[in-house]
């Protein structure tokens, strides 16, 4: 995370992830392999799904028995493309009590994203190879550098260039994320990079 509470990342499909994995195994640092189940919620008094593209996501995550609560508020450019979001996340002791709190506040579960994630770090990037149930395989690259004055659009362009240089072939980018891909597949606009 470049800025405190700011996330700069891309999510893409790549034609061939093998060169990327080989590159990361040789040049990166393997961090972990995790099974993550993300449950997303929306409020009855403020429906997050009403806006297009969806700007806000509220998530409960079970990552191999470690739990977190996360809120993201995406920023879009004039072309309705996202390059970064405000992100607030905290660890929680148990997921069931949060679900009960959400229920009492009339928050409804809207979608579950179930994925296997392998994570490496390389220079200022965290690179995740995700296998997402019902969606397939993806690559996420997140900026974890220390420079707080970076331009998010420039950084996301550099991420795409990195994937091209590694030899991933055709790169197909979405700007909406896994929950939107599951909920509204016909509304997704992909961009070949």
TrEMBL record:
This is CYTH domain-containing protein. It comes from the Bacteria. It comes from Candidatus Woesebacteria bacterium RIFCSPHIGHO2_12_FULL_41_24. InterPro entries: Adenylyl_cyclase_CyaB, CYTH-like_dom_sf, CYTH_domain. Residues 5-181 form the CYTH domain. Pfam families: CYTH. The lineage of its organism: Bacteria, Candidatus Woeseibacteriota. PROSITE patterns: CYTH.
